[in-house]
Write a structure and sequence with these properties.
Blueprint (H helix, E strand, L loop, with lengths): L1 H4 L3 H16 L4 H10 L9 H19 L14 H13 L12 H10 L2
Helix pairs in contact: 2-4, 3-4, 5-6
Length: 117
Amino acid sequence: LGAHYGIPHGLANAIMLPIVMEHNVEECPVRFMMLADAMGMDVSGKDPLGAARLAVQAVKDLKARIGLTQTLKDFGLTDDRERLMPTVELAASDSQVGYNPRYLEEEDILNLYIKAL
């Protein structure tokens, strides 16, 4: 996102984080449950997936509370698939993608960007 749209790296991460968390939540609910607990959410008595979803919501709430932009639209991105594909291809070729808990195809990455609009 930074290479093609000039979005600062940390801000791009902040925009994408809850979107990617939602994508991954079912793959690693216990990790997300521990994150929810660390963020002060009450996870007692909740199933791991339900508690994990609290972590996703906590990140969204934190972004809103501190006034971070919520979408990629704020940087001029649209759902024009053809324009997004160079960014998708760049992301897909990054070696870090292999560490994502859930396998990502280019179409998955494209859909994550579109959800972040």
